[in-house]
């Protein structure tokens, strides 16, 4: 028999954090992780190869694998999860018009800005960066037509995500078994290493479909209830295999390449689960609420952090030294925070000059009177 105060104790438990808050935090954490993937080292290809196996190379590899590799899968799943709810409330045409304004247009604008600033700085001798190329180079750097651009490489994600959005009205109407088939085909495409510019990263479609399935079957909520050790365990199990394949760096030729792609997919999935569980844990704490106030700048950070790497980071690197120098690890670990500060200052400056331009560049997250990003509001209002 329960003691008389048992119901009171149950009532006193803090409410479970809403998934919408965890989504906002997950997006912020993922985009900060992407900054690590593109972090400034000051080294070229041969110099980076010479650093392989060093303490700083191991530090960089570990941070990128944990925080960086989870970013694209989790962002894709979050997008699929939100789309599954959004299309249930509005028609396909308003939905697609909205995604053209909030995904495709910002991608083109930011790529154009990056080309002008970075190529201009390189032409004037102010930065070590790509110079203006031929018409195909311009098309790829502006639209990510056949490959990711050389300057704003991260916006290739927006290109593939927009194509997933075009297919979303059909995908959300498919039965779960057909969605599983689509996801399996995308996974096979990735592991096969077959290149076809319909999608630059087939894994984006795989995890986008996974997000739709997660919304349909309540998987986000179930993953949020996992004990922390169960969220960590898959990552701990797959990382040794990933390390072994990285060290082996050869093996049975084609088999090794396909095995590496398959294990990379597992690593990204395991890291995504870990980051999602971390976002849930943060959402239950005051620090999560404070971080969520900055999530409205996360898309701006995603789009402009390569400007920081091309134009600002080398100046800081003059003080810290390149990878291999004693001060570089501290600079490396701080780069997401520094790039985020750069993005916030740039966003506030653009917002002060032209709220309309800020709205366009931020995909609708800035330029309007809102205290937090749409992800922090109730999902029924936001998407």
TrEMBL record:
Residue ranges that the Swiss-Prot or TrEMBL entry lists as coiled coil: none
Membrane spanning residue stretches: 21-41, 61-83, 103-127, 178-193, 199-214, 297-316, 328-347
Ranges for domain Acyltransferase: 22-344
InterPro entries: Acyl_transf_3_dom (IPR002656)
MF-aspect GO terms: acyltransferase activity, transferring groups other than amino-acyl groups
Keywords: Membrane, Transmembrane, Transmembrane helix
Official protein name in the record: Acyltransferase 3 domain-containing protein
Species this chain originates from: Rhizorhabdus wittichii (strain DSM 6014 / CCUG 31198 / JCM 15750 / NBRC 105917 / EY 4224 / RW1)
């Amino acid at each position: 028999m329960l003691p008389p105060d048992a119901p009171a104790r149950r009532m006193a438990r803090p409410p479970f954090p809403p998934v919408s808050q965890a989504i906002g935090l997950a997006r912020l954490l993922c985009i900060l992780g992407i900054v690590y993937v593109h972090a400034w080292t000051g080294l070229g290809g041969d110099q980076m190869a010479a650093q392989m196996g060093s303490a700083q190379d191991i530090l960089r590899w570990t941070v990128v694998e944990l925080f960086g590799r989870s970013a694209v899968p989790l962002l894709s799943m979050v997008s699929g999860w939100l789309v599954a709810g959004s299309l249930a409330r509005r028609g396909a045409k308003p939905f697609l018009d909205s995604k053209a304004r909030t995904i495709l247009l910002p991608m083109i604008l930011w790529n154009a800005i990056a080309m002008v600033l970075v190529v201009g700085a390189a032409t004037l001798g102010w930065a070590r960066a790509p110079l203006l190329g031929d018409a195909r180079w311009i098309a790829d750097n502006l639209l990510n037509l056949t490959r990711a651009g050389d300057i704003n490489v991260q916006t290739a994600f927006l290109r593939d995500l927009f194509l997933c959005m075009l297919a979303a009205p059909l995908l959300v109407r498919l039965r779960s078994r057909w969605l599983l088939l689509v996801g399996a085909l995308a996974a096979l495409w990735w592991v096969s290493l077959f290149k076809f510019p319909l999608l630059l990263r087939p894994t984006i479609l795989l995890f986008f479909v996974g997000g739709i399935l997660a919304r349909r079957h309540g998987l986000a909520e179930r993953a949020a209830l996992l004990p922390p050790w169960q969220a960590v365990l898959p990552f701990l199990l797959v990382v040794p295999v990933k390390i072994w394949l990285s060290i082996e760096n050869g093996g049975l030729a084609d088999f090794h390449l396909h095995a590496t792609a398959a294990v990379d997919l597992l690593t990204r999935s395991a890291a995504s689960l870990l980051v999602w569980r971390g976002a849930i844990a943060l959402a239950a704490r005051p620090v999560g609420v404070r971080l969520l106030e900055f999530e409205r700048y996360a898309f701006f950070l995603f789009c402009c952090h390569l400007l920081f790497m091309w134009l600002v980071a080398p100046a800081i690197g003059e003080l810290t030294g390149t990878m291999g120098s004693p001060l570089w690890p501290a600079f490396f670990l701080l780069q997401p925070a520094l790039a985020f500060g750069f993005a916030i200052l740039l966003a506030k400056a653009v917002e002060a000059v032209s709220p309309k331009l800020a709205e366009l560049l931020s995909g609708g997250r800035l330029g309007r009177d809102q205290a937090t990003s749409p992800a922090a509001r109730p999902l029924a209002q936001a998407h």
